[in-house]
Amino acid sequence: VKMLLDLSRLVHSLSISWNVPHATNPDVNYFLNAEDVDWARVILEMFSRKINKLKIETLAYPGYLSRQNADSLGQKVPLLDKKIWFETTSSAHLDGISYKNNEHSIQVSGHVMSIKHSTR
């Protein structure tokens, strides 16, 4: 987590592809060798720094982002004073969601959640 927060101070965009299999269920909160992390809080903290574009792909563990985390991101990311582009793999079971909030489009289709400012 510290590495991600440190990186988000240095770069405007970051793409993470993490598909390392582990001996647990793919729906558990497991990402970057860490379990039970509040990833919504981490992602929001990353966006509060320099970063404004983030892609997280974790096909092995799409459950790293809970439904509550996904809902929280959909509500809070658009309220940051930035033009955000965010896309992640998620099995938060929110398929078919599509709405706008503060010039950001929030969509969930299949196992992909995206939050994108209208200019991006």
What would you note in describing this structure?
By secondary structure, this protein is an alpha/beta fold. The chain has one domain (2-117). Helices cover 23% and strands 29% of the residues. It is built from three helices and eight strands. It has helices spanning 2-10, 39-47, 67-76; strands at 13-17, 30-31, 34-35, 53-57, 85-89, 98-101, 104-109, 112-117. The protein has a six-stranded mixed β-sheet with strand order 1-4-5-8-7-6, covered by helices on one side. Strands 2-3 form a two-stranded antiparallel ribbon. A hairpin with a 2-residue loop joins strand 7 (104-109) and strand 8 (112-117). Helix 1 runs parallel beside helix 2 (39-47) and helix 2 (39-47) runs parallel beside helix 3 (67-76). The longest helix is centred in the middle third of the chain and has 10 residues, at 67-76.
Short description:
It contains three helices and eight strands.
> If helices are DSSP runs of H or I spanning 4 or more residues, what is the number of helices?
3
Outline, from the CA principal axes? globular
Strand order of the largest sheet: 1-4-5-8-7-6
Instruction: Report the β-strand fraction as a percent range.
Output: 25-35%
Q: Which stretches are low in confidence, meaning pLDDT under 50 for 5 or more residues running?
A: none
Number of DSSP E strands: 8
How many structural domains does the protein architecture include? 1
Radius of gyration: 13 Å
The succession of helices and strands, N to C, reads HEEEHEHEEEE
Query: How does the major sheet shape up?
Result: 6 strands, mixed
End-to-end separation in angstroms reads: 27 Å
Query: Mean pLDDT across all residues, rounded?
Result: 87
Helix content: 10-25%
Q: Which structural class should the secondary elements be placed in?
A: alpha/beta
